[in-house]
Amino acid sequence: MSSDIAHLNEPARVHLDDLDRKLINRLQDGLPVVSKPYAAVAEELGIEEDVLLKRLQWLLETRILTRFGPMFDIAQMGGAFCLCAMAVPEERYDEVTEQVNSLSEVAHNYARDHELNMWFVLATETPEEIETCGKRIEELTGIPVRLFPKEREFFIEFKVPA
């Protein structure tokens, strides 16, 4: 694995205080549909809105939270997601990463310490486009792409003890 991405598999050692934990747990329940949703959540937590926003920004900057935003059911909108994996030779890893990430259909890309060392998610407007996009990546890189379509869906919350 290239040295510039190896750190992504290492756990970060960051101290979360009680407010961070409460904020993470509360944000998983969604934002209220009001004119000032962050102010409403801040009030629930007994803090000022600017404190909430600064904490949220810190959680994102430190990568405790890697994403904060809405979750859409792409299948309900006619599209599809597919988990994919490739066995990329170490000496080509950075090159192939750039090739794969250059496609707008690639939603996430992860390095893993495994024979299948590159895992990514394809997001397409129709289910039929998944296989077409996988073949395009194979043509672009010369490396087979393994497609792992979703068989069932799980909803997992990550609540941290406060």
TrEMBL record:
Q: Which InterPro entries match?
A: AsnC_trans_reg2, HTH-Siroheme_Decarb, NirdL-like_HTH, WH-like_DNA-bd_sf
Q: Which residues form the Siroheme decarboxylase AsnC-like ligand binding domain?
A: 82-154
Entry's Gene Ontology molecular function annotations: lyase activity
Q: Which UniProt keywords apply?
A: Lyase
Question: Is the keyword Amino-acid biosynthesis in the record?
Answer: no
A Pfam cross-reference name: AsnC_trans_reg2
- Positions of the Siroheme decarboxylase NirL-like HTH domain: 20-64
Known catalysed reaction(s)? siroheme + 2 H(+) = 12,18-didecarboxysiroheme + 2 CO2
Report the pathway entry.
Answer: Porphyrin-containing compound metabolism
Known EC number: 4.1.1.111
Q: Please report which protein family the annotation says this sequence is part of.
A: Belongs to the Ahb/Nir family.
Q: Which PANTHER family match?
A: SIROHEME DECARBOXYLASE NIRL SUBUNIT (PTHR43413:SF1), TRANSCRIPTIONAL REGULATOR, ASNC FAMILY (PTHR43413)
Q: What protein name is recorded for this chain?
A: siroheme decarboxylase
Annotated source species: Pseudovibrio denitrificans
